[in-house]
Specification:
- Helices cover 63% and strands 3% of the residues.
- With 345 residues, the chain is mostly helical.
- It has one domain.
- The strands form 2 sheets. The protein has a 3-stranded mixed β-sheet with strand order 1-4-5. It has a two-stranded parallel ribbon with strand order 2-3.
- Strand 4 and strand 5 form a beta hairpin.
- The longest helix is centred in the N-terminal third of the chain and has 27 residues.
- The protein is globular, with a radius of gyration of 21 Å.
Length: 345
């Protein structure tokens, strides 16, 4: 009788070796990058045109929903370009994707500033939450003022994600940085003008339903989905926030960032952003090579996993405060019980 098959865990690998192992995957294929950009922008244009001119409302609705998913993919292309992962020196790509990001109400300068800060400080409790959803510890919550608590509750409320059109993109990504630094972040102000200018043109050409199905509805869905994807990839039951002595960019990528398992269609629509831990480890890897890197590097195959299954979505949305003693995220109820127990101890 054959002995039972045993699978050995991945061999230990240093952080330097792991980073070196990802370097070959940063090499992009220019024709492939252009194919993804051209085909994605073409599909967005085609599907949203159908949403605008289809003779039946149900067909407009279907096209609008499909368009929202591809709009998320379009934003991931800009995201990769901003990281220098694709078409690094192309002025044409810079123009096309920068305009797209502004239509999406993500001012180029502020988005790059906030997102790069997020990458450099993910799960680092010593730094601010710029570019991310804030996380408070139980101690910080206990010492917070009523206004700080209100701000925190609003930021981590599921309605903030659902209404990301207004809360995340219109306010956080455009109006707030523009009014704070109008010269530096002029693209944020221009984003609002461009975004609502498109709505106005569509309304003028075809009426309110054309504007609704061809732009307002798909953008609303895309904004909410994009905000949730970003939230869930850093707020999930197995997440770990690292103390100063344990923090490194590599550790944060592997322990504080999730792998979101998606079916092939949704993986395409979201630009493979589900391989988020790989992206955080080396943001210069083109999105279409993230899966390849995870497949080939065993150390990347043990990341915490989440999905878009309703049970997993609910598990992520319930997380509110970080317990620095048990080192896990708690629900509001668990947080109250933990603080009450420690007060009595």
């Amino acid at each position: 009788m054959n002995a039972p098959l045993t699978i050995s865990p991945p061999a230990a690998i240093s952080e330097r070796e792991l980073l070196a192992a990802t370097k070959p995957y940063t090499v992009e294929s220019k024709w492939k990058s252009w194919w993804h950009v051209g085909s994605t922008l073409g599909v967005i244009t085609g599907v949203l045109t159908l949403a605008a001119i289809a003779p039946w409302w149900w067909l407009q609705l279907i096209a609008s929903i499909l368009g929202s998913l591809v709009m998320v993919r379009g934003f991931i292309l800009f995201h990769d370009f901003a990281h220098g992962a694709i078409l690094r020196k192309s002025k044409v790509a810079r123009f096309l994707l920068s305009v797209y990001s502004m239509i999406f109400m993500a001012g180029v300068s502020y988005w790059r500033e906030a997102h790069n800060f997020h990458h450099a400080h993910v799960s680092d409790m010593r730094e601010s939450s710029q570019g991310s959803f804030p996380v408070m510890t139980l101690e910080q919550w206990a010492n917070a003022t009523p206004m700080q608590r209100l701000y925190y509750r609003v930021n981590r409320n599921p309605l903030t994600l659902l209404l990301a059109y207004v809360t995340v993109f219109m306010f956080s990504n455009t109006l707030e940085p523009f009014f704070r630094q109008p010269i530096k972040h002029w693209t944020s102000g221009a984003s609002v003008v461009l975004h609502f200018g498109i709505i106005g043109v569509l309304w003028w050409l075809g009426g309110p339903m054309t504007a609704f199905f061809a732009f307002i509805l798909p953008y609303s869905i895309a904004a909410s989905l994009g905000a949730y994807l970003f939230y869930a990839q850093h707020n999930f039951p197995e997440m770990d926030l690292l103390p100063e002595e344990e923090w490194s960019r590599v550790s944060a990528s592997l322990r504080s960032t999730s792998y979101m398992r998606l079916n092939p269609f949704l993986a395409w629509c979201t630009g493979q952003i589900g391989y988020h831990h790989v992206h955080h480890l080396n943001s210069a890897i083109p999105f279409y090579r993230l899966k390849e890197a995870m497949r080939d590097i065993p150390a990347l195959q043990t990341a915490p996993v989440t999905t878009l299954h309703p049970k997993d979505v609910w598990s992520c949305l319930r997380l509110k405060l970080w317990d620095e003693v048990e080192r896990r995220m708690l629900t509001w109820r668990e947080a109250r019980e933990a603080m009450r127990a420690r007060a009595l101890a």
